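Annotated sample (chain length 304).
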Amino acid sequence: MVYHPFRHLGLKVLSVAIAVLLWLAVAGEQVVERSLLAPLELQGKPERLELIGLPPATVDVRVRGPSSILGRLAATDVVAVIDLSTAKPGHKYFPLSPDQIRVAPFGVEVTQVSPATLALDLENSETRVVPVVPTVEGRPAEGFLVDQVTVEPAAVQVAGPETAVRALRHVQTEPISIAGLSRSLKESASIGLQAPGLQLKSARSAVVTVAIVPAPVEQVLSNVPVRMRNVPSRLSAAVSPLAVRVVARGPKAAFDGGGTEPVSAFVDLAGLGAGRHTLRVSVEAAQTLQVLRIEPAAVRVTLR
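Output written by the structure step:
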Protein backbone atom coordinates (compact mmCIF):
# COMPACT_ATOMS: atom_id res chain seq x y z
CA MET A 1 0.00 0.00 0.00
CA VAL A 2 1.40 3.45 -0.98
CA TYR A 3 1.51 6.03 1.77
CA HIS A 4 -0.12 9.38 0.82
CA PRO A 5 0.99 12.11 3.23
CA PHE A 6 -1.79 14.43 2.16
CA ARG A 7 -4.62 11.96 2.60
CA HIS A 8 -7.13 13.23 5.21
CA LEU A 9 -5.23 16.50 5.30
CA GLY A 10 -8.12 18.35 6.95
CA LEU A 11 -8.26 16.03 9.95
CA LYS A 12 -4.53 16.21 10.41
CA VAL A 13 -4.54 19.99 10.41
CA LEU A 14 -7.41 20.02 12.90
CA SER A 15 -5.56 17.67 15.27
CA VAL A 16 -2.44 19.81 15.20
CA ALA A 17 -4.50 22.91 15.83
CA ILE A 18 -6.21 21.36 18.86
CA ALA A 19 -2.87 20.19 20.29
CA VAL A 20 -1.40 23.68 19.87
CA LEU A 21 -4.40 25.27 21.55
CA LEU A 22 -4.16 22.86 24.51
CA TRP A 23 -0.47 23.52 24.87
CA LEU A 24 -1.03 27.24 24.81
CA ALA A 25 -3.79 26.91 27.41
CA VAL A 26 -1.62 24.85 29.77
CA ALA A 27 1.54 26.85 29.12
CA GLY A 28 -0.27 30.05 29.79
CA GLU A 29 -1.96 28.75 32.96
CA GLN A 30 -0.66 29.89 36.32
CA VAL A 31 1.29 27.33 38.37
CA VAL A 32 0.21 27.30 42.02
CA GLU A 33 0.96 25.35 45.21
CA ARG A 34 -1.50 23.83 47.61
CA SER A 35 -1.40 21.91 50.90
CA LEU A 36 -3.76 19.06 51.64
CA LEU A 37 -4.18 16.19 54.08
CA ALA A 38 -3.45 12.94 52.26
CA PRO A 39 -4.55 9.58 53.70
CA LEU A 40 -1.74 7.36 54.98
CA GLU A 41 -1.62 3.82 53.62
CA LEU A 42 0.52 1.07 55.19
CA GLN A 43 1.40 -1.73 52.80
CA GLY A 44 3.13 -5.09 53.03
CA LYS A 45 2.96 -5.60 56.82
CA PRO A 46 4.27 -9.12 57.59
CA GLU A 47 1.72 -11.45 59.19
CA ARG A 48 4.05 -12.09 62.13
CA LEU A 49 4.05 -8.41 63.13
CA GLU A 50 1.40 -6.30 64.86
CA LEU A 51 1.15 -2.51 64.90
CA ILE A 52 0.94 -0.98 68.38
CA GLY A 53 -1.38 1.98 68.65
CA LEU A 54 -2.97 3.87 65.79
CA PRO A 55 -0.77 5.66 63.23
CA PRO A 56 -1.91 9.07 61.98
CA ALA A 57 -4.74 8.77 59.49
CA THR A 58 -3.33 11.54 57.29
CA VAL A 59 -0.11 13.43 56.55
CA ASP A 60 0.35 16.98 55.26
CA VAL A 61 1.38 17.04 51.57
CA ARG A 62 2.31 20.14 49.58
CA VAL A 63 1.77 19.90 45.81
CA ARG A 64 2.48 22.17 42.80
CA GLY A 65 0.71 22.25 39.45
CA PRO A 66 -1.61 24.14 37.12
CA SER A 67 -4.34 25.96 38.99
CA SER A 68 -7.12 24.24 37.02
CA ILE A 69 -5.87 20.78 38.01
CA LEU A 70 -5.18 21.64 41.65
CA GLY A 71 -8.62 23.24 41.89
CA ARG A 72 -10.20 19.88 41.10
CA LEU A 73 -7.78 17.89 43.25
CA ALA A 74 -9.42 15.88 46.05
CA ALA A 75 -7.69 14.51 49.14
CA THR A 76 -8.25 10.96 47.91
CA ASP A 77 -6.30 11.74 44.73
CA VAL A 78 -3.11 11.95 46.78
CA VAL A 79 -2.06 9.00 49.00
CA ALA A 80 1.04 8.59 51.19
CA VAL A 81 2.37 5.02 51.09
CA ILE A 82 4.75 3.33 53.59
CA ASP A 83 6.12 -0.12 52.79
CA LEU A 84 6.39 -2.37 55.89
CA SER A 85 7.51 -5.54 54.08
CA THR A 86 11.03 -5.38 55.62
CA ALA A 87 9.93 -4.08 59.03
CA LYS A 88 11.15 -5.67 62.28
CA PRO A 89 9.84 -5.54 65.87
CA GLY A 90 10.62 -2.44 67.90
CA HIS A 91 10.29 1.34 67.78
CA LYS A 92 11.04 2.09 64.13
CA TYR A 93 11.30 5.25 62.01
CA PHE A 94 10.03 5.34 58.43
CA PRO A 95 10.99 8.27 56.16
CA LEU A 96 8.28 9.98 54.13
CA SER A 97 9.57 11.60 50.94
CA PRO A 98 7.77 13.00 47.86
CA ASP A 99 8.66 9.76 46.07
CA GLN A 100 6.34 7.88 48.43
CA ILE A 101 3.32 9.98 47.52
CA ARG A 102 0.97 8.54 44.92
CA VAL A 103 -0.77 11.27 42.90
CA ALA A 104 -3.62 10.45 40.54
CA PRO A 105 -3.78 13.50 38.19
CA PHE A 106 -0.97 13.98 35.65
CA GLY A 107 0.98 17.23 35.90
CA VAL A 108 0.95 17.50 39.72
CA GLU A 109 4.30 17.58 41.53
CA VAL A 110 4.77 16.77 45.24
CA THR A 111 7.17 19.29 46.80
CA GLN A 112 7.01 18.50 50.52
CA VAL A 113 5.67 15.93 53.01
CA SER A 114 5.14 16.58 56.73
CA PRO A 115 6.13 14.84 58.92
CA ALA A 116 9.25 13.78 57.07
CA THR A 117 9.62 10.76 59.37
CA LEU A 118 6.93 8.57 60.88
CA ALA A 119 7.56 6.58 64.08
CA LEU A 120 5.78 3.22 64.43
CA ASP A 121 5.87 0.61 67.19
CA LEU A 122 5.81 -2.99 66.00
CA GLU A 123 5.57 -6.20 68.01
CA ASN A 124 5.55 -9.90 67.25
CA SER A 125 2.05 -11.31 67.08
CA GLU A 126 0.83 -13.97 69.51
CA THR A 127 -2.24 -16.17 69.93
CA ARG A 128 -3.61 -17.37 73.27
CA VAL A 129 -6.69 -19.10 74.68
CA VAL A 130 -8.38 -17.14 77.51
CA PRO A 131 -11.53 -17.86 79.56
CA VAL A 132 -14.85 -16.16 78.88
CA VAL A 133 -16.43 -14.45 81.91
CA PRO A 134 -20.19 -13.83 81.66
CA THR A 135 -21.47 -10.45 82.84
CA VAL A 136 -24.80 -10.63 84.70
CA GLU A 137 -26.61 -7.56 85.99
CA GLY A 138 -29.55 -7.12 88.36
CA ARG A 139 -31.21 -9.34 90.96
CA PRO A 140 -33.88 -12.01 90.51
CA ALA A 141 -37.41 -11.58 91.84
CA GLU A 142 -37.92 -11.63 95.60
CA GLY A 143 -37.70 -15.15 96.94
CA PHE A 144 -35.35 -16.32 94.19
CA LEU A 145 -31.57 -16.42 93.76
CA VAL A 146 -28.90 -17.26 91.17
CA ASP A 147 -27.81 -20.85 91.65
CA GLN A 148 -25.27 -21.12 88.81
CA VAL A 149 -23.97 -19.17 85.80
CA THR A 150 -22.39 -21.03 82.87
CA VAL A 151 -21.08 -19.87 79.50
CA GLU A 152 -20.45 -21.71 76.23
CA PRO A 153 -17.79 -21.59 74.89
CA ALA A 154 -15.91 -21.36 78.16
CA ALA A 155 -12.76 -20.03 76.41
CA VAL A 156 -11.85 -18.32 73.13
CA GLN A 157 -8.71 -17.74 71.08
CA VAL A 158 -7.37 -14.18 71.02
CA ALA A 159 -4.64 -12.84 68.72
CA GLY A 160 -2.70 -9.58 68.69
CA PRO A 161 0.49 -7.90 69.91
CA GLU A 162 2.34 -10.18 72.33
CA THR A 163 2.40 -7.63 75.17
CA ALA A 164 -1.37 -7.10 75.08
CA VAL A 165 -2.13 -10.80 74.61
CA ARG A 166 0.04 -11.85 77.57
CA ALA A 167 -1.55 -9.21 79.81
CA LEU A 168 -5.06 -10.42 78.98
CA ARG A 169 -6.54 -12.59 81.74
CA HIS A 170 -10.05 -13.08 80.37
CA VAL A 171 -12.68 -11.66 78.04
CA GLN A 172 -16.17 -10.61 79.07
CA THR A 173 -19.59 -10.87 77.50
CA GLU A 174 -21.88 -7.91 77.14
CA PRO A 175 -24.17 -7.50 80.21
CA ILE A 176 -27.22 -9.74 80.55
CA SER A 177 -29.99 -8.54 82.84
CA ILE A 178 -31.78 -10.91 85.22
CA ALA A 179 -33.64 -8.16 87.08
CA GLY A 180 -36.97 -9.41 88.44
CA LEU A 181 -36.71 -12.89 86.92
CA SER A 182 -38.19 -15.94 88.66
CA ARG A 183 -37.03 -18.50 86.09
CA SER A 184 -33.74 -19.53 84.50
CA LEU A 185 -32.41 -17.59 81.50
CA LYS A 186 -30.45 -18.68 78.42
CA GLU A 187 -29.26 -15.92 76.11
CA SER A 188 -26.61 -15.20 73.48
CA ALA A 189 -24.21 -12.32 74.19
CA SER A 190 -21.38 -10.71 72.23
CA ILE A 191 -17.82 -11.04 73.52
CA GLY A 192 -15.94 -7.78 73.98
CA LEU A 193 -12.25 -6.91 73.70
CA GLN A 194 -11.18 -3.62 75.28
CA ALA A 195 -7.46 -3.57 74.48
CA PRO A 196 -6.61 -2.07 71.06
CA GLY A 197 -5.06 -4.36 68.47
CA LEU A 198 -6.62 -7.55 69.84
CA GLN A 199 -8.99 -9.69 67.81
CA LEU A 200 -11.03 -12.84 68.38
CA LYS A 201 -9.85 -15.78 66.30
CA SER A 202 -12.73 -18.07 67.26
CA ALA A 203 -16.26 -17.38 68.52
CA ARG A 204 -17.41 -13.75 68.71
CA SER A 205 -20.43 -14.52 70.90
CA ALA A 206 -21.26 -16.90 73.73
CA VAL A 207 -24.40 -18.49 75.18
CA VAL A 208 -24.88 -17.56 78.84
CA THR A 209 -27.11 -19.71 81.03
CA VAL A 210 -28.25 -18.35 84.40
CA ALA A 211 -29.95 -20.90 86.67
CA ILE A 212 -32.45 -19.13 88.94
CA VAL A 213 -33.96 -21.14 91.79
CA PRO A 214 -36.22 -20.40 94.76
CA ALA A 215 -34.27 -18.98 97.68
CA PRO A 216 -33.94 -21.34 100.68
CA VAL A 217 -36.14 -20.75 103.72
CA GLU A 218 -35.50 -21.59 107.36
CA GLN A 219 -38.19 -23.64 109.07
CA VAL A 220 -38.69 -25.10 112.55
CA LEU A 221 -39.99 -28.70 112.62
CA SER A 222 -41.50 -29.42 116.01
CA ASN A 223 -42.28 -32.82 117.53
CA VAL A 224 -40.01 -34.85 115.29
CA PRO A 225 -40.23 -38.38 116.80
CA VAL A 226 -36.97 -39.95 117.99
CA ARG A 227 -36.75 -43.49 116.69
CA MET A 228 -34.42 -46.16 118.09
CA ARG A 229 -32.28 -48.31 115.86
CA ASN A 230 -30.38 -51.52 116.57
CA VAL A 231 -32.09 -52.24 119.91
CA PRO A 232 -30.20 -55.15 121.55
CA SER A 233 -32.11 -58.43 121.57
CA ARG A 234 -33.86 -59.49 124.78
CA LEU A 235 -33.82 -55.85 125.98
CA SER A 236 -36.57 -53.26 125.97
CA ALA A 237 -35.78 -49.61 125.35
CA ALA A 238 -37.37 -46.29 126.30
CA VAL A 239 -36.30 -42.82 125.13
CA SER A 240 -36.88 -39.44 126.79
CA PRO A 241 -37.95 -37.07 125.43
CA LEU A 242 -39.93 -38.83 122.74
CA ALA A 243 -39.53 -36.02 120.18
CA VAL A 244 -37.08 -33.24 119.33
CA ARG A 245 -37.21 -29.90 117.57
CA VAL A 246 -35.26 -29.60 114.30
CA VAL A 247 -34.34 -26.30 112.59
CA ALA A 248 -33.50 -26.75 108.90
CA ARG A 249 -32.92 -24.61 105.78
CA GLY A 250 -33.74 -25.41 102.18
CA PRO A 251 -36.18 -24.89 99.31
CA LYS A 252 -39.73 -24.37 100.45
CA ALA A 253 -40.92 -27.29 98.32
CA ALA A 254 -38.64 -29.67 100.25
CA PHE A 255 -40.57 -29.00 103.48
CA ASP A 256 -43.89 -29.87 101.85
CA GLY A 257 -42.67 -33.43 101.44
CA GLY A 258 -45.66 -34.70 99.45
CA GLY A 259 -46.71 -36.99 102.31
CA THR A 260 -43.15 -37.84 103.36
CA GLU A 261 -41.53 -36.30 106.43
CA PRO A 262 -38.69 -33.99 105.34
CA VAL A 263 -36.54 -35.04 108.32
CA SER A 264 -36.34 -38.05 110.65
CA ALA A 265 -34.54 -38.25 114.00
CA PHE A 266 -33.01 -41.38 115.55
CA VAL A 267 -30.50 -42.76 118.06
CA ASP A 268 -28.36 -45.84 117.47
CA LEU A 269 -28.33 -48.40 120.31
CA ALA A 270 -25.91 -50.88 118.74
CA GLY A 271 -23.49 -52.39 121.27
CA LEU A 272 -25.20 -50.94 124.34
CA GLY A 273 -26.07 -52.94 127.47
CA ALA A 274 -28.77 -52.60 130.09
CA GLY A 275 -28.82 -49.29 131.93
CA ARG A 276 -29.30 -45.61 131.28
CA HIS A 277 -27.46 -43.92 128.41
CA THR A 278 -27.24 -40.37 127.04
CA LEU A 279 -27.02 -40.43 123.25
CA ARG A 280 -26.69 -37.72 120.60
CA VAL A 281 -29.61 -37.48 118.20
CA SER A 282 -28.89 -37.99 114.52
CA VAL A 283 -31.09 -36.61 111.75
CA GLU A 284 -31.66 -37.79 108.20
CA ALA A 285 -32.98 -35.04 105.92
CA ALA A 286 -33.96 -34.58 102.30
CA GLN A 287 -30.94 -34.03 100.05
CA THR A 288 -31.79 -30.35 99.48
CA LEU A 289 -32.18 -29.58 103.19
CA GLN A 290 -29.48 -28.40 105.60
CA VAL A 291 -29.97 -29.21 109.28
CA LEU A 292 -29.02 -26.21 111.44
CA ARG A 293 -29.93 -27.28 115.00
CA ILE A 294 -31.43 -30.18 116.96
CA GLU A 295 -33.09 -29.33 120.29
CA PRO A 296 -32.25 -31.11 122.49
CA ALA A 297 -29.10 -32.41 120.85
CA ALA A 298 -29.08 -35.54 123.13
CA VAL A 299 -31.69 -37.77 124.74
CA ARG A 300 -31.76 -40.35 127.57
CA VAL A 301 -32.25 -44.01 126.66
CA THR A 302 -33.09 -46.69 129.24
CA LEU A 303 -32.41 -50.34 128.41
CA ARG A 304 -33.88 -53.09 130.57
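Annotation: The first strand starts at residue 31 and ends at 43.
Annotation: The mean pLDDT is 87.
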